[in-house]
């Protein structure tokens, strides 16, 4: 991918990573989204028929993880913890107690859980933003605000 702009990498799905930002629409009546083709291609390359959805711990959006990648990350984080220790319970609750496992259809459509839709304030225009190992679903206006704030922080 050397020598290519982020936009070029994002357009073609960046191999097996989620890169770039794609616009989309949220069907509020059906609480449904359609994963963009470049991100569906990454899921296919990762053999991820199921995805894990969770609210972001850091931003007002929904994280969408390929299930194998999510399972690997959870196992990495809890590997050295004693299951009888309170820190194990706290971390496992934070990581997996409120996840939703979904299987997008052949066109990438999936119905989002109401609690996640509300947390991310999805309505109308949305954005899918690649985060290398996973991607996020944002209210498009909120993502624009977050990106503007990031730019101010860098100035």
How do the strands and helices of this protein lay out in sequence?
Elements: H1 6-11, E1 21-26, E2 32-34, H2 37-45, E3 51-55, E4 62-66, H3 67-78, H4 86-96, E5 100-102, E6 109-111, H5 114-120, E7 124-130, E8 135-139, H6 140-154
Antiparallel strand pairs: 1-7, 2-6, 3-4, 3-5, 4-8, 7-8
Radius of gyration: 16 Å
Please tally the helical runs, counting DSSP H or I stretches of 4 or more residues. Answer: 6
Give the terminus-to-terminus CA distance. Answer: 28 Å
Global outline = globular
Provide mean pLDDT, rounded: 90
Task: Give an overview of the whole structure.
The protein has 155 residues and is α+β, with helices and mostly antiparallel strands. The protein is built from 6 helices and 8 strands. Strands 1-7-8-4-3-5 form a 6-stranded antiparallel sheet. The protein has a two-stranded antiparallel ribbon with strand order 2-6. The longest helix has 15 residues, at 140-154. The radius of gyration is 16 Å and the shape is globular.
């Amino acid at each position: 991918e050397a020598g290519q702009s982020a936009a070029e990498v994002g357009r073609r799905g960046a191999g097996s990573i989620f890169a770039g930002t794609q616009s989309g629409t949220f069907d509020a009546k059906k609480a449904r989204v359609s994963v963009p083709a470049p991100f569906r291609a990454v899921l296919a390359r990762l053999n991820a028929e199921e995805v894990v959805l969770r609210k972001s711990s850091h931003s007002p959006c929904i994280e969408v993880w390929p299930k194998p990648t999510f399972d690997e990350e959870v196992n990495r984080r809890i590997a050295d913890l004693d299951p009888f220790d309170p820190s194990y319970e706290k971390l496992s609750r934070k990581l997996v107690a409120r996840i939703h496992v979904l299987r997008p259809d052949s066109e990438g459509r999936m119905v989002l859980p109401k609690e996640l839709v509300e947390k991310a304030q999805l309505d109308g225009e949305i954005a899918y933003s690649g985060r290398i190992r996973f991607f996020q679903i944002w209210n498009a206006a909120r993502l624009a605000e977050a990106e503007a704030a990031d730019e101010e922080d860098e100035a």
